[in-house]
Design a protein that fits this description.
Layout lengths: L1 H10 L7 E7 L3 E7 L4 E5 L8 E5 L1 H10 L5 H6 L2 E3 L2 H10 L3
Parallel strand pairs: 1-4
Antiparallel strand pairs: 1-2, 2-3, 4-5
Protein name: SCP2 domain-containing protein
Organism: Deferribacter desulfuricans (strain DSM 14783 / JCM 11476 / NBRC 101012 / SSM1)
Length: 99
């Protein structure tokens, strides 16, 4: 997870508006990602009360999406491997990070 987020920071191209994403990976890793117009910041834990997007995901699926350009679908959602309240923000985040 740390490697992926470091790569995200290095490759970040910006989003159209400031966005906050709260990631929960394998129920044990919790990160708040602040995607600003021109920079990306990653903080340990939950640092905001209301994130624009909350994403619960397995580490295996996160790696597959990041390294293999995998596009998750209904299978992952129905199995609970991926849960989010805003899939559009997640797609925009990946695009802003060159994915």
């Amino acid at each position: 997870m740390e490697n992926i987020l470091n790569e995200a920071i290095q490759n970040y191209k910006g989003m159209s508006e400031k966005t906050t994403i709260y990631f929960i990976v394998d129920e044990s890793i919790k990160k708040t990602v602040v995607a600003d117009l021109d920079k990306l910041e990653v903080h340990d834990g939950k640092t905001v009360d209301n994130a624009d997007c909350v994403c619960k995901i397995s580490s295996n699926l996160f790696k597959k999406i990041w390294y293999e350009n995998y596009k998750p679908g209904m299978k992952e959602i129905f199995s609970g491997e991926l849960k989010t309240n805003n899939p559009e923000i997640l797609q925009n985040f990946l695009k802003a990070c060159g994915k």
